[in-house]
Design brief:
Elements (H helix, E strand, L loop, with lengths): L3 E4 L5 H12 L3 E6 L3 H10 L4 E5 L5 H14 L3 E6 L14 H23 L12 E7 L1 H4 L5 H21 L5 E7 L1 E2 L10 H10 L2 E2 L1 H9 L5
Parallel strand pairs: 1-2, 1-4, 2-3, 4-5, 5-6, 7-8
Helix pairs in contact: 1-2, 1-8, 3-4, 4-6
Bound molecules: NADP nicotinamide-adenine-dinucleotide phosphate.
């Protein structure tokens, strides 16, 4: 039976590498994307076509609902959920608008709650719930904070707290919940926010890892 794993933000960056690694592990990968359909389709090719690309703006509950029901209807029940998609904005809180703050919170944090809720409520063929793995992609910013990315850091801290609560709620029922607090990962879209000089500074002050290593942390729970 095919095991379906949904990876949000799989059109580029870390999520694309997560999708490639999961497909090498034999999973049927659903590559979630928002704006970059062509990039997602290219990643699906890298996955040997063992999967499908699905568009959704995960900051909106209705889009998440539509995406999960489409996957269930066309492919089956979701076995693993990787909440990877995320956005940031390099701006002091004093200068941010309500809309800008809401976009970061809804994309990074609310979406994880929406998708977990929807995957847990999937109609299942058998007695057992189909969902067995949830992985949230957080950041060291969620532990240490980051001046200039306060809202982003708050969402990443929120994912850590969410995962701790869900571990207690779900692990007795056989659902493994993980949260990965990544250090800096160079060469992704999120890093386009930084100037060359800032990137040099990041290399001096942060632990820096590659996209491949970041993806290995995320896919570890799926390795038998
Ligand atoms: N890069 C780092 O240094 C670093 C460090 C720690 C943690 N992280 C975390 O790792 C994750 C991936 O980061 P990255 O650097 O790989 O990012 P990235 O290259 O900027 O890619 C972001 C991904 O998220 C998707 N996305 C954004 N908004 C979305 C929305 N509203 N609905 C659906 N998908 C949406 C994008 O889809 P489209 O392209 O299709 O629009 C894209 O696939 C994030 O959660 C980030 O916080 C990154």
């Amino acid at each position: 039976m095919k095991k379906i794993v949904l990876v949000t933000g799989a059109s580029r960056g870390i999520g694309a590498e997560v999708a490639r690694q999961l497909s090498r592990l034999g999973f049927f990968v659903v590559l979630g994307y928002n704006k970059n359909k062509e990039k997602a389709e290219q990643v699906l090719k890298d996955c040997g076509g063992n999967g499908v690309c699905v568009q959704a703006d995960i900051s909106k509950y209705e889009d998440c609902e539509q995406m999960i029901s489409e996957i269930n209807k066309n492919h089956g029940e979701i076995y693993g959920l990787v909440c990877n998609a995320g956005v940031t904005q390099k701006k002091l809180l004093i200068d941010q608008t309500e809309k800008e703050m809401a976009e970061i919170i809804n994309t990074n944090l609310m979406s994880a709650m929406y998708l977990t809720n929807l995957c847990l409520n999937q109609e299942s063929e058998g007695f057992e719930k189909p969902l067995k793995h949830i992985v949230f992609v957080s950041s060291v910013d969620g532990i240490k904070g980051n001046a200039g990315e306060a809202v982003y850091s708050a969402t990443k801290g929120g994912l850590i707290a969410l995962s701790k609560s869900l571990k207690d709620e779900l692990e007795p029922f056989g659902v493994a919940v993980e949260c990965v607090e990544l250090p800096a990962v160079l060469g992704t879209g999120m890093m386009d926010e930084y100037t060359k000089e800032e990137l040099e500074e990041i290399k001096k002050t942060y632990k820096v890892i590659s996209k491949e290593t970041a993806a290995e942390y995320i896919t570890k729970p799926f390795v038998k």
